[in-house]
Amino acid sequence: LIVYGLIAIMFLAISTYGNNVATAIAAEKSSRVMEVMITKVAPVPMMYGKILGIGFASLAQIFIFIGALLLWANIGIFDIPEGSFVQTVMETITWETAAYILIFFIIGYFIYATLFAIVGSMVSRPDDLASATMPIVILLMASLAVEMLFVMDSPEGNMTKITSYIPFTAPMSVLIRIVYNTITPAEIAVSLIVMLVFIAIFAAVAAKIYPKGVLKSDNLTFKQLIQFNR
Q1: Taking a C-beta distance cutoff of 8 angstroms, is the pair 22, 127 a contact?
Q2: Which pLDDT tens digit goes with each residue over 180-228?
Q3: Within a 10 A sphere around the Cβ of 70, how many other Cβ atoms?
């Protein structure tokens, strides 16, 4: 239950805050604020600013939530009964585990936030985001399904090891293996390097596509964006 809860929180946080990036971009395009802002700030720094700003806001909320739980458990204001579920949660989510949760939440957020930023620049109004972001949502749900069906039941299996190095599933897979203590520090480091490399690739692609998308007042397709960058 504890691991299921952690994965559910990560999934909801990444999908919610990632979608906020797309919504903010689409809202500015719809209200024509983007046309004014783009005369003062280049599109690429503007994109990174939105991703970082919303990312720091979400990080603050997650930090306050997890930090409050850990402080509540460790300062001794309330007595926690021996053998209770609350005691099990506090023994599982140590300060070290909480640090890993924050690290992999940040990594997972940036992986998907760059994709949401691209999609947000492709639509002309927020009402069109539901259909435009559907491929990313399906990718997120597929990643969650893999974790629930394969990784959770076999944290030491080959499928779990493979998903630990796939950028879209690695944040959740590595976190599960950390909680179950089935991963070595070297594997964590390699997984982090792989995810950071893919974030750099996604950011580079987004930096090329985003300026073309925000300057168009109508909806765009991926085919059109690719044509613009030839």
Answers
A1: no
A2: 888 888 999 999 999 999 888 888 877 777 777 666 666 666 566 655 5
A3: 15
